[in-house]
Write a structure and sequence with these properties.
about 350 residues; 13 helices; 434 Repressor (Amino-terminal Domain); Rossmann fold; six-stranded parallel β-sheet; about 15% strand; elongated; six-stranded mixed β-sheet
């Protein structure tokens, strides 16, 4: 016969507390004092308490199924000075859209805070959030010149997207760029492309922690049937470097994170897909005819809210000792810039 599991009801009976108090203490609810939480956890440990994963799964299902009543407000913080610059990046606006939709489903109000609108920036933001008892914060991707946000992180549960926020190292939702490269390279190889080139801006690759270039070179290393040509690193304004590289190496297909490179080549007499194939690393609806990877940025925004709500539920605040990155996967979009599979 299996040993009887310790339950929150048994702990409550031992301590003379209400079961709800014990349950809230075990999940670090802020309405329960720190002293009571520690006392309950000590008794729970002594009694060998272990949460039932099936019960936890059920409770999570009940919390997330269908629209909920208002829970609380969470902040979506944008540090771009110019709103047009932010809105020009489709994946960023999709993060916000996905986050807002998911927050509404879970009963949370998502409120956008533009640092550019606030005097004294981060200090003013802190005061506003604390005065309104906003405990949760989603840090949107930072502009290129910023690496950190000077916020009292200990006061908030938080999550960010990608790698642009370098310090502090908080939990983040990240697209699997290695998976995307592998998917694209596999698609190109099955269509008979053997001489494949990668064209990126150095700054763009660096923002992705060089995962695009690392994934590309790694794929070539293990596929001897593909020809290796140098990566074309250039900023998009530097058209001559791209054209010189293309003429020198004559790639059969080009992989890039910008459709502008395909257009530059087309303006200079190189037809796609008749003369070269093209695959986009960050496809969006604006490039409907282009083949590539849809990073599913709306889903990433929803995932960030799920991560944040979990942290709020567990009362996890501050910079985590062991931060984690939640990887999300894109999906292949066929488009019209490659030959048939």
């Amino acid at each position: 016969m299996s040993e009887k599991k310790t339950t929150s009801r048994m702990i409550a009976k031992r301590m003379g507390l209400h079961q709800t108090t014990v349950s809230m203490a075990l999940r670090n609810h802020p309405k329960i004092s720190e002293a009571t939480r520690q006392r309950v956890k000590a008794v729970a440990d002594a009694m060998g308490y272990c949460p039932d994963p099936k019960v936890s799964e059920l409770m999570q299902h009940l919390r997330t199924r269908g629209p909920k009543g208002y829970q609380e407000t969470v902040a979506f913080v944008i540090a771009y000075e110019n709103r047009e610059d932010w809105e020009a990046i489709t994946e960023f606006t999709e993060y916000l859209s996905g986050a807002r939709q998911r927050a509404e489903q879970l009963g949370y109000k998502l409120e956008v805070f533009w640092l550019a609108d606030l005097e004294f920036k981060e200090r003013r933001l802190e005061r506003i959030l604390k005065s309104r008892s906003i405990r949760g914060l989603i840090a949107a991707p930072l502009p290129d010149h910023m690496k950190s946000l000077d916020i009292d992180w200990d006061s908030f549960s938080s999550v960010t997207f990608g790698y642009r926020l370098e310090t502090p190292n908080i939990n983040r939702v990240v697209h699997s760029h290695i998976h995307s490269i592998n998917t694209i390279m596999g698609q190109l190889a099955t269509r008979g492309y053997r001489k494949i080139g990668l064209a990126l801006s150095p700054s763009g690759d660096a923002r992705m922690q060089h995962l695009w270039s690392i994934g590309f070179l790694g794929y070539l290393e293990f596929h001897d049937d593909l020809d290796s040509i140098p990566i074309c690193f250039h900023e998009i304004e530097d058209e001559e470097t791209l054209l010189d590289w293309f003429r020198a190496h004559e790639p059969e297909a080009v992989v890039s994170n910008s459709d502008n490179r395909r257009l530059i080549l087309a303006r200079n007499g190189f037809s796609c897909p008749s003369q070269f194939g093209f695959a986009h690393l960050a496809w969006s609806e604006q490039q409907k005819r282009t083949s590539g990877i849809d990073q599913q940025s709306v889903m990433m925004g929803a995932t960030a809210v799920d991560q944040l709500v979990g942290s709020l539920y567990r009362n996890e605040r501050g910079v985590p000792q062991n931060p984690h990155a939640t990887l999300t996967y894109g999906k292949w979009v066929e488009g019209k810039t490659l030959g048939p599979a």
